Amino acid sequence: MSTIPKFLSCDNFMEDEDGEYVLHTQAPKFLAKWNEEEEGFDILSEFDDISAHFNGNDDSITALFEEMAEWYSEYDEWLDSDIEE
Fold it and tell me: What is the DSSP letter of 38?
């Protein structure tokens, strides 16, 4: 692998056994945690200002979060299929 993937799944079982996190590695860089109750992501830490990166364009921010949610859904399906095998 020559480049870092856009999204990385992260866990820290010593601190948060049930927490599911995604690190967005490209600008704007941030760490998000899956919120099961709301079925969406909460931003925990912005390494880059997300709003400033998209010049306050809510549609672009929403598109990024939809892309991350789709990636996470595919990742979760992959995990389930890997466990079944």
Answer: T
Rounded Cα distance between 46 and 32, Å, is 9
Residues linked to residue 12 through DSSP beta bridges, in sequence order: 16
CA distance 34 to 32: 7
Q: How far does Cα 73 stand from its chain's mean position?
A: 10
Using a 10 angstrom Cβ sphere, with 0-12 exposed, 13-18 middle and 19 or more buried, the burial of residue 41 is buried
pLDDT by position in tens, the chain (length 85): 578 999 999 988 888 888 999 999 999 999 999 998 988 899 999 999 999 999 999 999 999 999 999 999 999 899 888 665 5
